[in-house]
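Hello forum,

I keep getting stuck at the same step: I have a sequence, I want structure tokens, and every attempt I make locally crashes halfway through. Rather than fight my setup again tonight, could one of you with a working pipeline run this one for me? It's a single chain of 678 residues.
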Amino acid sequence: EDLRRKAKHNVTSSGAPALSAFDAKVKELRSVGASVEIREKKANPFSNRDDSGKGISAPVDDLDWLLVEDMTPLSTWTNYLESEVNRDAMKNSTASVLLEAGNNILEELGCETVSSSGNGNVDDNSIVRTNLCLETITVKGFGPFKEEVTYPLMDRGLVLVRGSNRDGGSDSNGSGKSSLAMSALWALTGSIDPRPVSDAKVSDVIHDNSKTARAAIRGSINGASFVISRTKSASRGSLNLILDGEDLTKQSAKETQNAIDEVLGVNNQVLSRTIFHGQHTINGLLEASDAKLKEELSIIVPLKLWQDAAARARKQGRHLSKRVSELDGMVLIRNQDTDKIKMRLEKANEDVATREMSLTDKGHEISERLLQLQSLEGQSFSLEEIQQGVDEAAKKIDAIEAELNNIYTDLESELTPIRLQLKEETSLLHLETSELQNLETQCYRSDLSLSSASENLKSLQEKYGIVYAADLSSFTIPETPSICPTCSQPMVGDSHDHYVEEVKKNVLDAESMIESAAGRLRIDQGKVARQKTSVHTREIATRQIISEIDVREGTWKKQQTTFQNDLQKERLKYSEKSAEIAKGLKILEVKNESEQLKASSESELNIFRESLKSVIHNRDVLAKDLKDLSAGIKDIESEREDARSDGALMTISAENFGARGVQTFILQNTVHALQLAS
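Reply #2:
Ran it on my machine without issues. Output:
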């Protein structure tokens, strides 16, 4: 692969990539009929390791590379990122950012000097190993061993243990082979079987004829001798630790067990998978599923640190995401505040412009007013002379008005009796006119009666066929009809005479009514004529009285007109003089106003200036607030972008700290180490 990578940089004359020396040799062999099999050699993931946590060192021999469990977390993280870059799964820039972010998280977890296996404190340039030597194991009342038995463990080489059961049954089952082999594990950890046993009981390790079981193991760790003694009964147990002659036993068995695990640097899970192997775990790794293999490997190479790191990265990512949301809300609120301040600033600018215009207008107004007042101040007048003229005009007006009143009084005294006479004549004329109307009405009624009587006579003539003589002094009745026109009966004898008498009587009655109506009409017409003459005479008298009144009033009006003209002239003079007085008073008022205006104008202008100064200050404050708020928004937006970027970085960091990232890298390293070891 190295030869092939180097050949990529060489090209032929045609521009095509040149073959590497390796590919050229393979092609040559195959061209002569040789069978060539190419196998890929898996690269050591730590061939370019750096255990300092500061960079990548030069390649080393495969036998010299370190296990992940022998590295510090910072070194493991560095080499993992380097491996991701080497296999083109990550860019150098991304790896650099993740390296710094990951180191910070690991340092927050207290990993400056702690290895990933948790086996003690190491610095970046050293590896701490535990040298454990087991010398003897002594048991009593333990399993099938009732009496005390001490078994040597030091320098025994390969030992095959064969059991002999004297109690019957199988020759070896229950003879104590497993109990002897696992007694040291029980003394060290309190467990007799590397397999997970959920129903193990205390009675499982105590001999049937013993009350207590005891196991004591002697040995050395890193050159220091130790004795660990464990005792168990049905109701209680004890655990003792003596290291290099010092009794390190604690108050409780649990605390002493923690001290033993700390001295040994391993726990029962590690011991059961490295030193003590039961018959059921020999093929455990070979037969394990992927999940089981990962679980088993995580015991040797713990992944809790990386899980904690991933959890911390996710927590920081959530915190940053929450912070981004908070900053979004802050930006929204600040933008709303900005809009409000902009509106207030716009209003403040309008106020400034309005106040400036008001100040300018007020200055012009005061200047113009002063000019007007100055032009009026130059006019001169004599208030005493004007007042004298007003008084003379008032006297003349009073005299003319008094004369007019006298003339009017004389006229009224003359006209009063004449008006009374006119009133009487008018009243009589009204009465006589009313009487004339009544007489004319009566005459009209008499005329209607005459017309009605004449019509009645005419009707009788037509009805009975009466014929008058030429002088109208007599009349004749034609031949009597045979049938009565009234009752339609035949007229014979007396009926004919009665008919003639009846006709005559009706005609004479009609003629009498005509004469009576004509007499009344002549009388009424005479009354009407006389009444008309009386009314006419009364009308003439009334008109004469009215004419006399008009003549007298006309004479008075002429005199009144003359006096009124004189009065109007005097009133005009009075008005002119009064106007001059008012003008003079106005000039005096103008002088006073001018003096007051001169005194108050500067004060009034100062008020406008202060008002303008106030709104300008308010505008400047709003402008500064807007500037500060805009700068604050930029800072918040910058912080939000940083938080968003850091949140994305924490998400990527959590992924690389997770099961598909550095954890897989660690487990692959462990599997590779097992492959090389086997």
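The chain is about 65% helix and 5% strand. If your local run keeps crashing, start a new thread with the error log.
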